[in-house]
Amino acid sequence: MREGVGKIPLTFKNGVIMKFTSLSILFILSVVFKNESTAQDFWAITNDSLGSEVTAIVTNSNNEVFASTSANGIWHSSDNGLNWTVINNGLTTNNIQALAISPKTQTLIALSYIDNFRSTNNGELWEPFSLNFPIMNLTSNINGDFFGGSPLSGVGRSTDDGLTWENFSSGLTQFSIYAFAFGNSSFIFASSYGDAVYLSTNNGGSWIPIPIPNVFTNVHSLAAYNGILFAGTGGQGVYSTNYNQINWEQKVNGLTNLQIRLILINSKGHLYIATMNGGIFSSKDGGTGWTEISSGLNELNITCITISPDGFIYCGTESGAVYRSNNSTTSINETVTKIPKSLVLNQNYPNPFNPFTNIIFELPKSSFVNLEVFDALGRKVSTVVNEFKDAGKYIINFNAGRLSSGIYFYKILTKEFIQTRKMILIR
Predict the structure, then answer these.
(1) 7-40+332-425: which CATH topology?
(2) Which residues of 258-283 are buried (b: 16+ CB within 10 A; e: fewer)?
(3) 32 φ/ψ angles, rounded to the nearest 5 degrees
(4) What secondary structure does DSSP assign to 358-405, as a single string?
């Protein structure tokens, strides 16, 4: 027997409010308007523009976002990218080329072609520091050590939040370092100009070459997860290898562009790559197969990409735009250990909202789930879920960024259950 929610109002164009049973509403929504569907894009733009190319983007432990630009300094957002504030106090240049954050202390490091800066108070004030050698890219490991790639001098490392830096090049055959990846406490990887990839087992003090056979292009990016290293090349796609065996394998099935610019991996081991003007792709099977996820992007020249602690992906573009994934890559399909006793569609939160809200439902057993959103006139505006789900609890982050203020209804439908709830979008 199907459960309902009694009666809810529906407003029509003539302004008359009428009450129907939930089954009547569902009939209207699913039959009368069934052809007016709009699937939710993977990406949503968070801003019109930060004014110039986004050179780097990072998030802190509170999921706040920081973006550096090539001509407008550094920007900060504390509300998932909805609003941005310039945080240039203390900067002597607005041309910032690299930005990184320590996951341990939350210290921010920003680099320009001339001056270098650090902030210990969330970017409210930047203080200059000195480097004896140039660094063109920057990242930090789980211990809070900063690693930078020099265009000429190899690897730069700071173990004291950027106060002092050491330069290491022992074992390198190329000294223009592009990217880093951190396998665990013992394995650090770096890539350089040409086809060179290097391994360090002493926190970057020295390096061992681990070349990729038959690769004759630059290795632009690296990512490591659970014993596997992934390398993104400038023309031959993605390669992977076991940390110890150094047995490389090409992973290009499903890729329509083999020029990989950026590669990153979330806490579940799902891979995400940005290609050279060819879109963004994802893989949930270690690179065996790739699926394009560029829907919602107005441009494909992605300059930087990151994943926040809550699993959302942010990417910056050459034009100055910042995009955010509509859903978390780690919590959307996260099943609770305890299986629910009954199917429940919870009230969304926050409610009212602008424009992000969470829709939560619980499945007592595996089922095909259809979750859709309708406006007050009964028109379908988004298909949020339309797939088979295992038993458990699901949190769906819904982005109404393209919708206007008003009352909306979200409906869940399974083989044995239908329920509809109301939510309010306020701009």
Answers:
(1) Immunoglobulin-like (2.60.40)
(2) bbbbbbbbbeeebbbbbbbebbbbbb
(3) -65, -40
(4) EEEEEESS-EEEEEEEEETTS-EEEEEEEEEE-SEEEEEEEE-TTSPS
Chain position carrying tokens 């969330």: 122
Q: Number of helices (H) and strands (E), helices first, in the chain?
A: 1, 37
Tell me the per-residue pLDDT of 41-54, one tens digit each, with 9 for 90 and over: 899 999 879 999 99
Main-chain phi, psi angles of 26, to 5 degrees? -60, -35
User: Among candidates 333, 337, 327, which has minimal Cα distance to 361?
Assistant: 333
Q: Do 7-40+332-425 and 43-325 show the same overall fold?
A: no
List the chain domain ranges.
Answer: 7-40+332-425, 43-325
**pLDDT tens track for 66-98:** 999 999 999 999 988 889 999 999 999 999 999
CATH architecture of 43-325: 7 Propeller (2.130)
DSSP secondary structure letters along 142-181: TT--EEEE-SSS-EEEESSTTSS-EEE-TT-S---EEEEE
Find the helix or strand (DSSP H, E) in which 26 lies: helix 22-27
**Residue 3, pLDDT score:** 35
